Amino acid sequence: MEQNRKTMPSEGLSSSHGCQQTKVMKSKELSEDLRKKVVEKHRDGQSYVAIASSLNVPKSTVASLVQKWKRHGTTMNLRRTGRPSKITAKGKMKLLREARANPSVTLEDLKKSLQGAGTNVHKSTISRTLHKEGLYGRVAKKKPYLKKQHLKARLQYATTHLKDTPAMWESVIWSDETKIELFGLNTKKYVWRKANTADDPAHTIPTMKHGSGSIMLWGCFSSSGPGELVRVQGIMNSAKYIDILEKNLFKSAKSLNLGRKFTFQQDNDPKHTARVTQEWLRKKKVKVLHWPSQSPDLNPIGNMGRDLKIAVHQRSPSNLTQLEQYCKEEWAKLSKDHCAKLVAGYPKRLEAVIAAKGAATKQHIKPGNVE
Question: Looking at residue 218, what DSSP letter applies?
């Protein structure tokens, strides 16, 4: 009896261990090869009982595999839906309406809005819901403020000039002023570094207060290539602007093989539209392109200015004199082919304005192809 009693706990433990093994066996998934055999035997006309017996698989498992194969064409595990979202379909529509009606709405505001409707969720849940619908938080671009009269003027300009021939645009001299700071290029720089070494001089970008100075440049170009680029000394006014045109406009037209048969483009800056400037242009018989206000996206010289800044700051000028020198050198290097493509693609800008009903478009539209 004692011997039997001593062995009983051992037998009990063995039985318990056997149950654990059985549970493991039951929870273990069938191999892909075994699943295929189940389907093959079913297609051969064997019953669930026969398949289960021959493959030593529970009948319920055989039935489940066959039904899955019939319904989905596979016996592999399907993607699980996961826990149901706390945000209902109605709540999702509410979020989308509010985000589209007011793109500047914050996650905190959306969270409070849902709370008012009886749904309390974390802001990250709201963010994921919007992401699934293709809405992501991004930094808003700065664009010129456009009033109704601006929209109307831009749309009229685009529709009128969309009919112009390529030859007309090839005769235009595009111009603008741009400021270039010594340490002012707003670009990101990525470095490889270890943790806690972010402040190492090799891992930082040196900056200077107020950009350590800047220079103002006036430049022009046509489809034939870049024209003159000059530094504006001091504050630009009408008299200084006229002096720049006197010394550089016709010189540029000559170097670009346009002679006196060109159309001059300038924006509506007060010094450009001043009475003395207009009188000088009339006296010199310069044909001026009528320009809609608040339209930097319609001036392809913006692309040239961006390319210039990138090229110059890659050379890391150390002072304003060097900055001016690098600007003039890099401006002269700008490709004639690139200039021609910018002008050839100008109708794209007009089409973009028309599509936007006069609203602002991408300021740096990719150049078109030269035919």
Answer: E
CB 229 within 8 A of CB 255: no
| Backbone phi and psi for residue 287, each to the nearest 5 degrees, phi listed first | -80, 120
pLDDT band at residue 365 using 50, 70 and 90 as cut-offs: low
Statement: residue 16 has pLDDT above 80:
no
Residue recorded with tokens 């340490």: 183
- Rounded distance, CA 227 to CA 247, Å? 12
In 3D space, the residue among 212, 203, 249 whose CA is nearest the CA of residue 227 turns out to be 249
Report the alpha-carbon distance of residue 99 to residue 109 in Å, rounded: 10
Record the tokens describing residue 278, joined without a space: 């207009």
Crossing angle for the helix pair 123-132 and 89-101, nearest 10 degrees? 80
The more confident residue out of 105 and 287 is 287
- Is residue 227 within 8 A of residue 248, CB to CB? The reply is yes
Query: Cβ of 204: how many Cβ atoms within 10 Å?
Result: 11
DSSP for 95-106 reads: HHHHHHH-TT--
Please state, in angstroms and rounded to a whole number, the distance separating the CA atoms of residues 102 and 219: 40
